[in-house]
Amino acid sequence: MFDVDIWQEIFSTIKKNKLRTFLTGFSVAWGIFMLMVLLGSGNGLSNGVKEQFAQSAVNVMWMWTGETSIPYNGLKEGRQVKFNNQDYDFLTTKSKDIENVSSRYYLPNDILYAYGKEYGSFETSTCYPSLKDMENINIERGRFINDMDMQEFRKVVVIGDEIRKALFKEEDPIGKYLKIGGVPFNVIGVSMDKRRNQENNRAAYIPFSTAQRIFNGGNRVHTFTVTSKMVQTTEEAEAITEKVRQDMALRHDFDPKDKRAMGSFNMLTEYIRTMKIFQAINMFVWIIGIGTLIAGIVGVSNIMLILVKERTKEIGIRKALGATPFSVISLVLLESVLITTVAGYIGLVMGVGLMELINFGLEQATAGGGGENVFFKNPTVDFKTAVSATLILILSGAFAGYLPSKRAASVTPIEALRDE
Amino acid sequence: MISIQDLHKSYVTGTNSLHVLKGLNLEIEEGEFVSIMGSSGSGKSTLLNILGVLDDYDKGNYYLSGKRIWGLNETQAAITRNAMIGFIFQSFNLISFKNAMENVALPLYYQKVSRKKRNVIAMEYLDRLGLKDWAHHLPSELSGGQKQRVAIARALISNPKIILADEPTGALDSQTSLEVMDILKEVNDQGITVIIVTHEHDIAALTRKIIRLKDGVIGEVITNGELQMYRDRVKQE
Questions:
Q1: Among A282, A305, A379, B236, which is least packed, fewest CB within 10 Å?
Q2: Model pTM?
Q3: CA distance A318 to chain B (A)
Q4: Do residue A414 and residue B93 have CB atoms under 8 angstroms apart?
């Protein structure tokens, strides 16, 4: 079936009908081209939005407290709800949907950071070691806070790159002592947000336990940052939020429906919702792409039918000379597969090429500066998609050729050779 | 070589049934040079199709080289045709986009002979028919007689037992017709059975046996001495 001869047979017929073959192939190439451009654009949009989510783990949830707004259990509204260390213990040990927990105790905003003659006020994030993965903190130099720092209430600090620039200039800050609110802290690391988020780079991280002890926190926790187990639907994600709310409501005597008493934001819900949209877009793209492709295939099938009709006499001669039905079918089928595959492949390469070109342009633009918050990133098609598109092409070629080849095989030599 | 007993064939078109062959009996020995004649509607084309394993029959027996041809599927029929029978047609039926050599080599392609080898063999046959210089010409660049010689080379290349020629001279002038008949006679001299369907008396007269079909059965078989008389009669006409 794959010897040189059959290809020579096919090429000689294609050569005879150059324009027709080109037009047929063009419709298939166009179909695949559009499919690739659409898929690439879909991917670009999806990647751009995923990038937005990359600022933290996708399954992260933040919780904070406020004043109650609904009377509950004989208690009046307007009561301040406060998280505490027992809540931390509860979340880490009793809450089965919660994987990691980091407590935060707020230091005053105007707290002064000083090193030598340089000083300034920066945001202080008091946290557990687990925050690093939850908020995707990138350590440029040194290390992040660890469990030993927590246990021994060490006065250590990880500073954002902007703080380093402001206080240390060209000096290496690691091992140096920095005064925070007058208390010396040993600098153990420098963090740097890869997307140059200035806000993140102007923050410092110190161990929660140390902060609570030194800055008179007592038992108080202001906010929790937690990661929940991964789930697939928004309903499940909502259920996790709801469960935590109810637990906390029970512990602090407020109505679970009271959004003012305890606020929360579950990133996972948003993430799943967004990903669902992109799944839908992706499916839509495939449907449109396949639709375009089908139009191309119908074109090929149509042309092949005409071709078979035109070649009835030739097929009849071949059959009289000993061509088996199988050889006739493979002749037509392979021609169809050849046209669709070659044309489709050209469309594939052009489509992927265009998207790569756009990607290159985008990267140049981003590198040129200020490319933050681009909602379009890496609009390319991955290898897997390209392979499946190629398979679809070959299959569709066979599909397009099926009917015409059956028609060809049913040609009877007597009728074909009858002299009109 | 060919043995046919009580052969029946009807064509059904809609509600009409046309009974074409009505119990035909025919024996053709190996190495014979036979022409089949008959007016249109006598069933000679139908008989040729059945002989050529291009069509099946309803009833009776057809033995080709001792083997009964019956109930073959398309693939088996194709293999039988390829191995046993060489076809020559009135309108040559060469494939227009293949050159003379490729046309001649085609039956060997279906025997899975390698390209190189079958082209060499095709060249030999073209040489024998005096067309070596025309091997790389397309059929459209050949004259009628040349085309028919290419077709004869194509019919011969698979070493068939039988050559079936359907009006082989129908599209040729009388001079070329005689040349083609000379070639067919040479082919026959090599021991290949040649069967010609024709309605031209002078062509039929060049064969060694004439079978006249009439209303779906053999009407008359003219051989040997009778043939000489037949030839004279044709000459007078």
A1: B236
A2: 0.68
A3: 8
A4: no
